[in-house]
Amino acid sequence: xxxxxxxFRFYLTEEELxxxxxxxxxxxxxxxxxxVIPVVDIYELEPWQLPxxxxxxxxxxxxxxxxFAPMQEREARGGRPNRTTASGYWKATGWxxxxxxxYFLLAVLKM
Length: 111
Prior knowledge:
Shape: globular
Helix content: 10-25%
Strand content: 15-25%
Strand order of the largest sheet: 1-2
Number of strands: 4
Distance between the termini: 26 Å
Structural class: alpha+beta
Order of helices and strands: HHHEEEE
Largest sheet: 2 strands, antiparallel
């Protein structure tokens, strides 16, 4: 992806994030989505590693980071994700918003 002009920010609405980027990612329709929002297994990283990584992958935006993070469930039958890292664990904070289609959970947005 080419460099952005000074002052330019990649600013998505929740609708754009879900209906275009996430939808195309799940459907495998548009591989360029990975250039804009990279796939990063954040559970393999320590929290202090994310600022450097975000500068490299999120085009230098220090205020907002977008990653597709694969889910790794702790138990075979589902449940809570495995948040363990080499030196601790990720603690879930903030709030969660679910986006559903009839009979189908489309996305869970963590803030």
